[in-house]
């Protein structure tokens, strides 16, 4: 048969967790009546090598066998011997094939603007490569070779000088070099925030026991105040800034004193125009809960 001049395009969400279904879509401006989908690399899957009468095809539940590179061709109904050129290749990565690695930040998840940051991905498995993925950055995932580490492997993703664009949510994966398309379960999400050097710091953080609240105030009119505990950014409390006489503040309701509230608190401020760029920290406030559960006392130090 001959070949039609128009080339279709193939699209899909390229990173698919094992066990989920995925829809592959073949697009064309030529109103083709049927499409053929095939794999270029990886294991052959007979169900994906049939002629389709629609632009989309649902595959799954996804297994490692679905990982690989795909292309599609289009043709008109009644002309099954004449097909278009193949689409550009599309890579499908299947995750969840191995146990998840861990992801941590040095010197910590709060990084000064223009400073340096290292995201450390580590696994007990001897991965040949690691991948760092940012939920916010539009860049392609960052690949680094795995280095031996005790009985496992690790990789250090070094960034800097950092800007507000580096703030966001990160996760990492590992894979073996002979199975590039089969990745581990993602690490737990890691939130990174950037603190500005030229922003006024919150001036104080205090606890009011009669109202079970922590209060943060500043001479800068912050729109939002943030209250991490023990350096953990994920799930931290937020409060809208209140303004009066050139100052601003926020109150964080903690609820009745209980052991789970104990820890070291700091607060930061931010503006709506740059929500991922925080001020520097307030002085830390340590709260300890003592006494019987029905007579807990929350003490600020």
Task: Explain how this protein is built.
- The structure is a single chain.
- With 301 residues, this protein is mainly beta.
- Helix content is 0%, strand content 48%.
- The protein is built from no helices and 28 strands.
- The strands form seven sheets. Strands 10, 12, 13, 16, 17 and 26 form a six-stranded mixed β-sheet that branches.
- The radius of gyration is 26 Å and the shape is elongated.
- The termini are far apart.
- Mean pLDDT is 83; it is low at 291-301.
Strand-residue fraction? Answer: over 45%
The outline comes out as elongated
Largest sheet data: 6 strands, mixed
For the terminal residues, how far apart are their CA atoms?
A: 82 Å
The helical percent reads under 10%
Q: SS-based structural class? A: mainly beta
Instruction: Please state the CA-atom Rg, rounded to the nearest Å.
Output: 26 Å
> What is the strand tally?
28
Series of H and E elements: EEEEEEEEEEEEEEEEEEEEEEEEEEEE
Number of helices: 0
- Low-confidence residue ranges: 291-301
Report the mean per-residue pLDDT as an integer.
83
Pfam families: ig
Domain Ig-like: 89-172
Organism: Felis catus
InterPro entries: Ig-like_dom, Ig-like_dom_sf, Ig-like_fold, Ig-like_Receptors_ImmuneReg, Ig_sub, Immunoglobulin_dom
């Amino acid at each position: 048969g001959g070949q039609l001049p128009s080339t279709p395009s193939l699209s899909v969400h390229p990173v698919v967790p094992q066990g989920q279904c995925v829809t592959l879509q073949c697009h064309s401006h030529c109103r083709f009546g049927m499409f053929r989908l095939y794999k270029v690399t990886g294991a052959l899957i007979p169900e994906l090598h049939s002629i389709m009468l629609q632009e989309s095809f649902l595959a799954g539940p996804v297994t490692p066998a679905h990982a690989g590179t795909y292309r599609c061709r289009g043709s008109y109904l009644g002309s099954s011997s004449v097909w278009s050129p193949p689409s550009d290749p599309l890579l499908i990565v299947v995750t969840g094939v191995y146990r998840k690695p861990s992801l941590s930040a040095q010197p910590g998840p709060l990084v000064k603007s223009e400073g340096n940051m290292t995201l450390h991905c580590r696994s007990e498995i001897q991965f040949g490569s690691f991948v760092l993925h940012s939920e916010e950055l539009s860049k392609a995932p960052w690949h680094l070779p795995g280095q031996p580490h005790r009985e496992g492997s690790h990789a250090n993703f070094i960034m800097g000088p950092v800007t507000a664009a580096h703030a966001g949510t990160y996760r990492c994966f590992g894979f073996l070099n002979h199975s590039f398309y089969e990745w581990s379960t993602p690490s737990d999400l890691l939130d990174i925030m950037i603190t500005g050097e030229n922003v006024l710091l919150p001036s104080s953080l205090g606890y009011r026991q009669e109202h079970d609240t922590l209060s943060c105030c500043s001479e800068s009119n912050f729109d939002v105040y943030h209250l991490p505990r023990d350096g953990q950014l994920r799930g931290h409390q937020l409060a809208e800034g209140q303004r009066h006489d050139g100052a601003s503040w926020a109150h964080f309701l903690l609820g009745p004193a209980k052991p789970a509230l104990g820890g070291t608190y700091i607060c930061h401020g931010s503006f709506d125009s740059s929500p991922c760029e925080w001020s520097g920290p307030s002085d830390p406030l340590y709260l300890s809960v003592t006494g019987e559960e029905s007579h807990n006392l929350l003490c600020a130090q």
